[in-house]
Amino acid sequence: MVAATQGADLFAAKRWGSFDRYSSVSYRSDTHGGRLVNNYGNHIAGAAYGKYEDVARMPTGSILAKDSFVVNGNGTVSAGPLFLMEKMVNGFNGDTGDWRYAMVMPDGSLFGVTGGKNSAGLQFCHDCHIAAEDNDMMFFLPSEYRSR
Ligand code: HEC
After folding, report:
1. Nearest residue to 58 via CA among 90, 31, 15
2. What is the pLDDT of residues 125-137, one digit of tens each?
């Protein structure tokens, strides 16, 4: 997975492999295509993301990553997209709470990024994440899968 996303010309896509992992095991996310997923955060996100529901606003420079994969009927594993949320500087995008969403396809190509390529195609990310506005657009992960 890490190697596959290196082609996307996006800092977070190149670096997420070194992030801290917040999921104890991979869990199924119905909101991300029913795939198995993990959650990661960079060191800037660290202390804040780990507060979960008690967090107010994430610090600028926080990057959250969610990789995804599917276990096929014959036991083989197929990589799914990489989902990214990056907290930009104040004023980057008032509509998204200054979050930049991005999705990187399993072949390493960038599907879209807020404010860049195919920005409109990523609107659906925020349309759902806005429901977590009280937690700075974050849903975290189900408590039973939290490793921190
Ligand atoms: C239909 C609702 C929905 C959509 C659409 C959606 N998400 Fe999420 N997202 C969630 C939920 C719920 C969680 C936490 C639980 C889980 O993973 O199932 C989450 C978690 C995340 C996380 C971990 C950070 C956090 O919130 O704690 C990232 C990163 C993320 N989503 C990125 C994206 C991106 C990028 C897109 C669009 C390509 C997207 N999401 C589309 C509902 C959604």
Report:
1. 90
2. 999 999 999 999 9
